[in-house]
Amino acid sequence: MKKIKASVLAVVLTVLAVVGGVIGLNNITVKAADPLKVSVDTVDATKGQKSVQVAVNVENPGNLGGLQLEVTWDKEVLQATSAVKGDFSIASPVVNTQRIEEGFIGYADAGAEGVNTSGKIMIITFDVLDAAKVGVNPINVKVHSAALGDINATPIPASDIVTTNGGIKLPEPGPLKVSVDTVDATQGQKGVEVAVNVENPGNLAGLQFEVTWDKEALKATNAVAGDFKLAAPEVNTERIAEGFIGYADAHETGVDASGRAVIITFDVLNAAKLGANPVEVKVTSAADGDAQAITKIETVQGAVNVAEFVCDHKNVKDSDYVVVKQPTYTEEGLAEAVCPDCGKTLTRPVDKLVCEHKNVKDSDFVVVKEPTLSEEGLAEATCPDCGEKVTRSIPKLERPSDSNENIVVNGDADVKVDVPSGVADNNLTKEEQDAILNNGADTTVKVDVNKVDENNVPKADKDAIQAVPDIKVAAFIDIKVTLQVEGFDVKSITQTASKIAFTVQIPADILNAPEGYVREFNIVRIHNGIAEMLNPTKNGDQLSFASDKFSTYAIVYSDKVATTPDDPTTPTTPTTPDDNKPSAPQTGDTLPIALFVLMLAGIVGIVVTSKKRA
Questions:
Q1: Mean per-residue pLDDT of the chain
Q2: How much is the pTM?
Q3: 443-452 and 405-411 beta bridge pairing
Q4: 115, 64 in Cβ contact below 8 A?
Q5: Phi, psi at residue 270, to the nearest 5°?
Q6: CB atoms < 10 A from the CB of 290, how many?
């Protein structure tokens, strides 16, 4: 045999892909001991399955330099849709699919050097046709020629090549199976469907069976043929009321597709037991397409599993309820309705009648709390209709016309005081009140307002105000309230029934804040050792507030960095306050002249002449 170039040989193989030797051009290499093996996979599939891939493999190539083969199959049972090269390659493999529809594929490959690595020569994709048989549907491989990759392209003898055919394997069908569904239901449920199924028909051509159940537990209302049929299935319902249905169907040729033979509709009766209520099937005859009796049959019984019915009564309407017990003023009534789903009688309460207490007379009321000059009284009566307690208020007592209420304000001229009528009536004893009501005794409420030096402020009050953060004290004010009823001793009042209004002049020397700061003023009340900010209203150089508790007060202030008008979030550069200039009187400080004058005026006092209040 003449030597030819590998490229020329590759062209010849590509064109012929059927016959001829393979001529190697390079080194002479002794073939491996293991024989060259070409095999086709056997894969599992089912009838009608698409895109099943089958590989043609090469093993032990042993310096293989050229290979030609063909793959064939029965086109009536397998339809090849494509064939592509695998991962095995000598040089430039060619897969010839020109006759793929005829059940034939050619393959050829040759190279200047041999290869030693196993792999997949090609991968073929099949659709499994309905004519495919149970078992292996063959896919055969035939090697036409093979040669080593040596300089002489030494042919590999057929005796040194092992070929293994493969195919697509369809599983053996299981036994004919006729089964009854098991379904869940509840007591009294209607329209429960149970199917009788046929599986693994395997060329079934004739079938007869009967279905039975307990007619006392289940009432069959209908039975129809399902989607499984051989030719014209007959469902015999003549004895359906007795708990029996017959089924029969036959055809000349067998069928292979599973399906539902019969669908039975049941109503679950009240006699149905909780748990499984059997629905059973019995196959009386079966035959295949060759008219041979089928003896290997599996039957699976079913049931209607009944659970206790829990009704939500959602179909009970308000209009269904009927009042069976009328409500009264003291007791609820009762209404009943029957649920259309479960038949249970439902009840719900009817609200008690709303009593308007129309039959309560004025004479029925009894005073349970006497009114006073400062508080209303209370009277109660029992409603004769509903038994509820009915209350009504008794107006506060009015001061008799011959009793004068005198308001006296003493103290600092820079503090204006507005005292309302009856401000201290809550502090009257019964004896004092009786003296006013029965004898027309006069009362005098005296309010003393004085600015005091820090040294004269009780230590507990100073400690309380020092605990308030970020404030400076400008002045302390002592407010005392006393009450005297004509004929009784004077007594000090620390809390009044209503608030007394005050307007305080801010000391002139603390009105202005240093440049770059804003000064904020407040009033602190120290009462029973507790300091409390009152947040007064500022009008010019005056602070106005109201209070019903009286002890020590303080005018306080704090300086905050001012912000620019254009950007409120950007502070201006403040001027540091002059530490040598006192901003408020402190312990040991020299009091400003203006404040000294104010304090002097507080000592002298201003007496407001008594006035009669309505």
A1: 86
A2: 0.41
A3: parallel
A4: yes
A5: -65, -25
A6: 9
